[in-house]
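Batch job 17 of 40 flagged for manual review because the log was empty.
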Amino acid sequence: MLKKRSRRSVSPSLTEKNEKLSLLLEKLVEKSVQGAIIIVEGMRDAEALRNIGVPGKVSCIKARRTPFYDVLNDYVNLKEELIVLTDFDRRGSQLAGKISRYLEQHGKHPNLEFWMKLNSLISNDVKDVEGLASYLENVKKRSGR
């Protein structure tokens, strides 16, 4: 007869995922402290980043009355690194592509590394940046931290 796993036991994959996610978010905080601008979709996404400890400039691309490409045009001549962190759903993916293409056409190369890594780590569990903070809390509870 097979033994039932207790709810307290944690699969190695959950612990490993939590460690990778923590390291990635630490790097994001570090980039933010160094002056990188993080581009998100809306205000709630920005709030979620604040809740997980991202201190620097977070820009909401959809939360302005200014046309989309006018907002992006403001970033073209900046020296700061631009990190694109749109949602992890189909529309967020399309938006990340639009942002990236526009900036690259104007000589600015945005950082999509965080978006790609987060997407591969948590896209089955979280569809937007807004859900990131609550996801982290749940992972910590499940892993017993």
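Reviewer: the log was empty due to a logging misconfiguration, but the result itself is present. Confidence is low (pLDDT under 50) at residues 1-11. Unflagging and moving on to job 18.
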